[in-house]
Amino acid sequence: MINAIGSVINQIDSLVWGWWMIILLLGTHIFMTIRTGVIQRKIGTAIRLSVTKDTNAEGEVSQFGALTTALASTIGTGNIIGVGTAIALGGPGAVLWCWLTGVFGIATKYCESLIAVKYRVKTKDGRMQGGAMYALERGLNMRWLGLIFAFFGGFASFGIGCATQVNAIATVCNENLHIPSAAIGIAVAVLTALVIFGGIKSIANVCERLVPFMAFFYVIGCIIILGINFDFIIPAVKTICKFAFTPGAAAGGLVGRGIMMAMQYGIARGLFSNESGMGSAPIAAAAAQTRNPVRQALVSSTGTFWDTVVVCLMTGLVLVTSIMKNPSIDMGNITDGGVLTTLAFQQIPVLGPVILVVGIISFAYSTVLGWAYYGERCVEYFSGKKGLIPYRVLYIAVATISSVISLNLVWTVADILNALMAIPNLIAVLLLSNVIVKETKKYINDLDARDDTPVEVIDK
User: Fold this and answer.
1) Which of 183, 291, 360, 456 is most buried, by the most CB atoms less than 10 A from its CB?
2) Which region, left, alpha or beta, applies to residue 253 given φ > 0 means left and ψ of -120 to 50 means alpha?
3) Which Gene3D superfamilies does this chain map to (predicted)?
4) pLDDT tens by residue, 201-216
5) Is 33 or 176 the better-scoring residue by pLDDT?
């Protein structure tokens, strides 16, 4: 029975992540890059804005707080285990497609965040609400599609945002620190409860401190490992570029599986990692204090830059160089990304396991916090404020039990839910592209200009 269910889920995954989804996602990235006049060229300005406070603007949290909350959910196990899975199943060429998804995905993240801020609303108690569901409802009069997005988003939070993350923490702590998985689940659940019951401000305060530390620690660690593997960096880059398009074999047992497999797993893991096009991060962007939609959209776009263009690329290079340098890693018998990542990092004495353990714990826990907020906003959209307490209790319960259950199919289900969230969100981005272009032209050369359009107050 379990095998039959697994087979059906795998078939659904193959269907939703077929050529049509790759074309829709990557096509939207490229289309919106063109329509925004290659907004990626503003990444330097966007990074500067991300650390600039805009306290006189309307919103719940700072621009940096909104960004780090979004980064908390996007910089997760997908950056470590997800990249390993892409390499194990799609070959080293998947790293290039994952990276390209990030480069072009900057434009989509900009666009989805812009409409999230433009169409956001405020509750009577002063909380900002926004995201694809409000853009669909208020921008396109398609509340029914907004409800579909919120439904999938609420369910996705339990898988991609909670179960897979807590299980990764429990696994790495059990294998490396010999701490019982059940104890880890309880500890994570308690720490999560202490934060999420404080709302977006509490989550943002924690993320503002945790995200910069974890990203800096991980990137420095990867740079040191690449220094150790320096003689394999150029061969690894060549292998990644070559096997993104052709099948074949390389040093260390690496196998290129052809363009379709490389694209499928590279783009799927790219979306899982940076969430560009999925519509999750704009939910946090909508809460930001910002003078106009373009300003916060630029800040939000830096999330994809840091997440995929920097962190995922470094993880991919660390894995490929380590595999090529250490023939003892038997790629012929590895299909699990977590196993591949663990073996690769273990090749580096002392430093490798430390980076892996600290990286997974901090990345995964921050994702648990970020997705708790996303899930809350989705649940509140279709059930009202009364659904928040039951959701939080269930979220904490999932965090508690997911440390001790098998999650072999959860990653596949997460991929499916990612795609099902992305579809209505991409529809909103594409149908509102004229609005995005108009707003961009209005503010891009005067980012300090204030949008005085009153934010609608809703009865929730």
Assistant:
1) 360
2) left
3) Amino acid/polyamine transporter I
4) 788 788 778 888 888 8
5) 33
